[in-house]
């Protein structure tokens, strides 16, 4: 009962960011271009559904490192700032590659199909790797000394007269490197909906800005989203097929893409909540 108010507060903020994204889409629709507006909505729904799956990975990272809840949201806030910068670089690079070599979209398509099918086959906890095995973390640990214990919410601390990295900074590095892995799926998937860099980036920003509050909601309801993985896998597979079908000059319209993503997202959430109703 004590968590009801914080969860309700976070849920209202999630709805706020969703509403803000839809108002932005309406502004694009009436003031700029109808097609851009539909592309924005498609990209946003795609990124929002993928971000829900990303939150479960963040939860496993925090649990693995034993990060106290009081420090998780500060770490996540800095992670979101880093994600905003990294996504811009990924999208800008992706747009340059796609415009120069259009056949790269076919490769993106097959990679997304592979990722989606792999996610379908994975069993819960079956192939989960420890965040401590993250190669970026291992490299940083060799270059910079890391303290054994947390020092409040500090990322850098002084120990025996020397500056050292705290475990919280190590967690931040793992989260940022994980976001790079997420971008490998999400950015190519966004190009299945739109080829305009600014449309894709704007949709990413709105999805990322609501990530912190979405994390808090899922953190306290994670056992109830048991089918979320399958919805995300279906969306990844669909976006991959959409890109792969371009080889045969088959184009799936943006409204159909939006409808499929929305149906899969809602179906996975509703079915999960119904199935776990007694928990």
Describe the structure.
The chain has one domain (about 5-275). Helix content is about 75%, strand content about 5%. The chain has about 280 residues and is an all-alpha fold. It has a two-stranded antiparallel ribbon with strand order 1-2. It is globular and about 65 Å long.
Biggest sheet statistics: 2 strands, antiparallel
Helix % is over 70%
Q: Could you tell me how far the N terminus lies from the C terminus, measured between alpha carbons in angstroms? A: 14 Å
Instruction: Quickly count the domains.
Output: 1
What spatial form do the alpha-carbon principal axes imply? globular
Mean pLDDT figure? 85
The beta-strand count equals: 2
Strand content: under 5%
Structural class: mainly alpha
pLDDT below 50 for ≥5 consecutive residues: which ranges? 125-129
SS summary, helix count: 10
H-E order: HHHHHEEHHHHH
Oligomer: single chain
Strand order of the largest sheet: 1-2
Q: C-alpha Rg, in Å? A: 20 Å
């Amino acid at each position: 009962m004590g968590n009801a108010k914080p969860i309700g507060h976070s849920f209202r903020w999630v709805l706020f960011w969703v509403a803000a994204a839809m108002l932005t889409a309406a502004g694009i629709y009436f003031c700029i271009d109808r097609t851009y507006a539909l592309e924005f909505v498609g990209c946003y729904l795609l990124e929002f559904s993928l971000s829900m799956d990303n939150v479960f990975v963040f939860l496993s990272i925090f649990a693995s490192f034993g990060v106290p809840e009081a420090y998780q949201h500060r770490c996540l806030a800095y992670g979101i700032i880093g994600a905003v910068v990294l996504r811009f670089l990924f999208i800008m690079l992706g747009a340059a590659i796609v415009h120069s070599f259009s056949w790269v979209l076919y490769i993106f398509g097959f990679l997304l199909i592979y990722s989606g099918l792999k996610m379908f086959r994975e069993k819960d906890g079956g192939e989960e790797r420890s965040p401590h095995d993250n190669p970026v973390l291992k490299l940083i640990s060799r270059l910079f000394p890391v303290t054994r214990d947390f020092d409040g919410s500090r990322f850098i601390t002084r120990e025996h007269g020397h500056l050292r990295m705290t475990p919280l900074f190590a967690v931040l590095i793992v989260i940022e490197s994980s976001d790079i892995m997420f971008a490998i799926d999400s950015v190519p998937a966004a190009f299945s909906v739109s080829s305009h860099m600014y449309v894709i980036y704007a949709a990413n920003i709105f999805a990322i800005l609501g990530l912190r509050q979405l994390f808090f909601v899922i953190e306290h309801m994670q056992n109830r989203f048991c089918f979320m993985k399958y919805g995300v896998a279906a969306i990844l597979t669909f976006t991959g097929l959409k890109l792969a079908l371009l080889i045969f000059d088959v184009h799936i319209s943006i409204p159909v893409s939006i409808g499929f993503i929305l149906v899969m997202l809602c179906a996975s959430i509703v079915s999960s909540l119904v199935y776990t109703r007694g928990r």
